[in-house]
């Protein structure tokens, strides 16, 4: 993908401040970090989103993620860490090469707000059961 900025980082045609690389993935500093130590982890193979990843590519990403997270933890001693990954523009994806954000968290005012609305009504259990059945059926196909 010659127009993909992340593919250009993989190819080395544009710079990226790499923190980790193996045969399958690269991790580099986000140039517009939310917090100190914000890193992006990508597959070297161009995949637009999670729907396009193979199981092997996903395994390679998650094999590297704990290594990078632990290095960030040791270096910056954050209070926590978010792993964030968006798929599609509606979900906030702006670069269409799969990437996972590793965002060290320091305090509630560090620039990132991730919240779940706890005031939403709970689904009735029969609806939850039906949804689970439908998803399980799709996984068997």
How are the SSEs ordered, and which strands pair?
Elements: H1 5-11, E1 18-21, E2 25-29, E3 39-43, H2 55-76, E4 80-84, E5 100-105, H3 125-140
Antiparallel strand pairs: 1-2, 2-3, 3-5, 4-5
Give a brief rundown of this model.
This protein is of the alpha+beta class. It has three helices and five strands; from the N terminus they run H-E-E-E-H-E-E-H.
**Counted beta strands:** 5
In spatial order, strands of the major sheet run 1-2-3-5-4
CA-based shape: globular
**Number of H/I helices:** 3
End-to-end distance, in Å?
A: 31 Å
Helix content: 25-40%
The name of the CATH superfamily reads HIT-like
What's the order of the H and E elements? HEEEHEEH
Look at the structure and give the CATH class.
Alpha Beta
Query: What fraction of residues sit in β-strands?
Result: 15-25%
The main pleated sheet reads as: 5 strands, antiparallel
Low-confidence stretches: none
Domains, number: 1
What structural class should be given to the helix and strand makeup?
alpha+beta
Q: What is the CATH architecture descriptor?
A: 2-Layer Sandwich
The whole-number mean of residue pLDDT values reads 94
Q: Would you give the CATH topology?
A: HIT family, subunit A
Domain HIT: 5-113
Motif (Histidine triad motif): 97-101
Protein name: Protein hit
